[in-house]
Amino acid sequence: MRRGRVHRLLSSVLLVGAMTIVTGGTLAAQTATAAPDRGTLEISVTYGAMLSNAIVSNSFWMQGGSVEVEGLFYHGLGAVADVGGMGTGNINSTGVSLDLVTATFGPRYTWAPARKKYEFFGQGLAGVANGFNGLFPAATGATTSQTSLAVEAGGGMNVALRPHVALRAFEVNYVRTQLPNSTNNVQNNVRFGAGIVFRFK
């Protein structure tokens, strides 16, 4: 994949984010002014960078973003769905490209100190990963796309800016995928992100 494809992937994620911002602003304006800082629904849009094959010598960086939707159920316990897209056009100067989209779901716990503007969260998610525009070994020859299990574990910190808007100061997740790679068919990745969070009652 060339640089233009990485930009198109990132642009798609950011377009979803922009649509979320417009919708979020409308819904927030319709919410009562006495609403608490922490709503029952959160939508976050983040820019991300991911270190792929993080524990081996041939690691490389990918860039992209993600959109998360979280529903808060009881005393900080909620469920979150995460869709992220990452891409690179030249893995370690080999000329081989890779796009990766993950869709995961699972529980999240959020803890916020009393009368503070910041909160911390931790999560464990599972779902699927789709690698495409790449090169994957197979019994019948190399293919350009593959699908595998995806598992995420991590957390981050939010800082309240307004009653319905918060800053995602940072988010760090370990992401494990199992795409074919001619060795152990396992990728250990670390994804970093920061962005904006919209909260609805």
Can you walk through the features of this model?
It is a single chain. The protein has 201 residues and is mainly β. It has one domain (3-200): Porin, CATH 2.40.160. It has one helix at 3-30; strands at 41-52, 60-74, 77-88, 98-111, 118-132, 146-162, 165-177, 187-200. An 8-stranded antiparallel β-barrel has the order 1-2-3-4-5-6-7-8. β1 (41-52) and β2 (60-74) form a beta hairpin. The N and C termini lie far apart (41 Å). The model is unreliable at 13-37 (pLDDT under 50).
Distance between the termini: 41 Å
| Structural class estimated from helices and strands | mainly beta
CATH topology label: Porin
* Structural shape: elongated
Q: Please provide the count of β strands.
A: 8
Which second-level CATH architecture applies? Answer: Beta Barrel
What series of H and E elements makes up the topology?
A: HEEEEEEEE
Pick out its properties:
single chain; 8-stranded antiparallel beta barrel; 1 helix; Porin; mainly beta; 8 strands; 201 residues
List the helices and strands and how they pair.
Layout: H1 3-30, E1 41-52, E2 60-74, E3 77-88, E4 98-111, E5 118-132, E6 146-162, E7 165-177, E8 187-200
At a glance:
With 201 residues, the protein is mainly beta. The chain has one helix at 3-30; strands at 41-52, 60-74, 77-88, 98-111, 118-132, 146-162, 165-177, 187-200. It contains one helix and eight strands.
